[in-house]
Amino acid sequence: MKKIIIVGGGAGGLELVTRLGDTLGKSQQAEVTLIDQNAYHLWKPLLHELATGVLDEQVDNIYYAAQAEQHHFLFKQGSLININREDKHLFITDMNGEQLTLDYDILVMAIGSTANDFGTPGVKDNCIFLEDQNSAIKLREILIAKFTSFCSSIANHKNQEKDKIQIAIVGGGATGVELASELPAMVETFGVCGHNKMCSDLLSVTVVEAAPRILPALPEKTAKDITKTLEKRGIKVLTNTMITKAESDGFYPKEGDLIKADIMIWTAGVKAPNFLKDIGGLESSRSNQLVVKPTLQTTRDDNIFAIGDCASALQENGRPAPPTAQAAHGMAKICAENIVNMLKNKPLKTFVYHDKGTIISLHDTAQGVVTLVGSRQMGVKGWIALQIHRLLYRMHLANLLGFFKTLRFISASKTMHKVKSAAIFSSRNPINSDLTKRK
Ligand SMILES: Cc1cc2nc3c(=O)[nH]c(=O)nc-3n(C[C@H](O)[C@H](O)[C@H](O)COP(=O)(O)OP(=O)(O)OC[C@H]3O[C@@H](n4cnc5c(N)ncnc54)[C@H](O)[C@@H]3O)c2cc1C
User: Fold this and answer.
1) Residues near ligand 1 with C-beta < 6 Å?
2) Rounded to whole angstroms, how far apart are CA atoms 250 and 29?
3) Which residues does 249 contact at the CB level (< 8 Å), separation at least 6?
């Protein structure tokens, strides 16, 4: 039986392995295995919600082992370290730190991307990235710890700029803007959770962008509207501001004064992990992505595919498909069909990226564009935009769980959030004991 291994159970990899498990795995035409360094999946576009306590990793995740059991594939937790293409071997480190060698006939690389600091001095040491579940949870813990210590020190101070918690986010793309939008609400919830002096007026959030405007993927007018929405909520937006250095007191721009910050967050771009550069002698791009043919097979090995953020799939406009969940989903679909076709000696399909639009969630509202027939774009905002944004996540869940299980998953998640309301804020810090004392 052919051995198919997919490395990376993210937006693209988990959809792909589920499709292959339901087809080739179920009919025992192939042994399908997923390798991931984590035990569970949480859709990356929701990381800012995990970081701000809107989502809970205990409730909103999908365990790989459970998904594997229900969709006829195997799961092994471990980190990919290298490939030997001649012998078709894959080297991984498992959870005990032991190195394992696995055989494959067909391999799919779907390991996503990591934050790109573009070599800016001090960023690695002083900033928090929002690149995976662990970094989102770490950011949440840092925010809660900062709010907690701030609460204990504000009693005798006046509400002046110097008395605020200062958060600076470098990168005015979707990640930075969505995270900034959630922060004032997070502080309000934190205030309700036992420290009534805490409110969003005590928060100063700045989004810093090197380009003349934020959100380059959106039309200029939409980006301007979103800038206004952010500013109305007290969030500062600094454009044309190139950061050249980060130190413990804040960000140093090329021109102008130090941007002071108690918490420094870097969301200015992504690249594929460094170890992918030339892995197994495969062709890689400047940002470490594996270069693929239109069929998503890597250029130097037809038995190795790459999809999602770690793949460089050139499009007709001469640029690679963007690193988005939308592109990862499209690639997973074509890759699954191509692997089935390959086993049946049928011709392979080509991947073409269709931009369906971009919606930015702004806590209780959203704004963006959707692509209509004939690639015309239409602006959407408010409740409708928020529903479309949520629909994207629900469609991802439906691809993994099926329609009816998705309904049950969403309803269970809503119930758990109601039951555990604000538990994230009250269970991990001294405020919990404050609450107990007050009662
Ligand atoms: C905060 C944030 C917000 C975003 N918002 C949007 C949005 O609104 N819309 C949109 O379209 N896109 C958005 N994106 C981008 C989108 O999330 C990614 O493009 C998408 O997740 C890429 O899918 P992927 O399958 O390539 O990789 P990922 O989803 O990143 O999954 C990679 C998987 O590989 C695993 N892995 C990594 N290294 C190894 C290793 N060495 N060994 C084993 N396993 C490994 C990881 O654990 C992970 O499970 C956002 C990204 C972020 C960070």
Assistant:
1) 7-13, 35-38, 44-45, 47-48, 79-80, 110-112, 130-131, 174-175, 308-310, 323-326, 328
2) 56
3) 258, 260, 261
| Residue with tokens 């958060």, as numbered in its chain | 167
Name the closest-CA residue to atom 5, ligand 1.
45
Strand pairing class (259-260; 128-129): unpaired
**What is the torsional sign of CA 13, 19, 20, 26?**
positive
pLDDT in tens, 325-349: 999 999 999 999 999 999 999 999 9
This prediction's pTM: 0.91
Mutate to test the pocket of ligand 1, among 271, 324, 354 (most ligand atoms within 8 A of CB): 324
- How many Cβ atoms sit within 10 Å of the Cβ of residue 154? 16
pLDDT in tens, 380-433: 999 999 999 999 999 999 999 999 999 999 898 888 877 766 555 544 433 333
CA–CA distance, 84 with 131 (Å, rounded to integer): 28
Burial of 195 (0-12, 13-18, 19+ CB in 10 A): buried
Strand arrangement, sheet containing 366-371: 357-361, 366-371, 377-381
- Residue 256: CA count within 13 A, CB half-sphere: 16
Q: List the residue whose alpha carbon is closest to atom 19 of ligand 1.
A: 324
- The answer to whether 211 and 393 have CB atoms below 8 angstroms apart is no
Q: What is the DSSP string of 398-412?
A: HHHH-HHHHHHHHHH
**Ligand 1 centroid distance, CA of 113 (Å):** 6
d(CA 217, CA 107): 32
The alpha carbon of 323 and the centre of ligand 1 are apart by a number of angstroms equal to 9
With 0-12 / 13-18 / 19 or more C-beta atoms within 10 angstroms meaning exposed / middle / buried, residue 10 is: buried
Order of all β-strands in the sheet with 74-84: 99-103, 89-94, 74-84, 30-36, 2-7, 106-109, 301-306, 297-298, 290-292, 311-313
Structural Rg of the chain based on CA atoms:
23
Which residue type is seen at 374?
G
Transcribe 292-313 into DSSP letters: E-TTSEETTEEEEEE-GGGEEE
Condensed to tens digits (0 to 9), the pLDDT of residues 200-241 reads 778 899 999 999 999 998 999 999 999 999 999 999 999 999
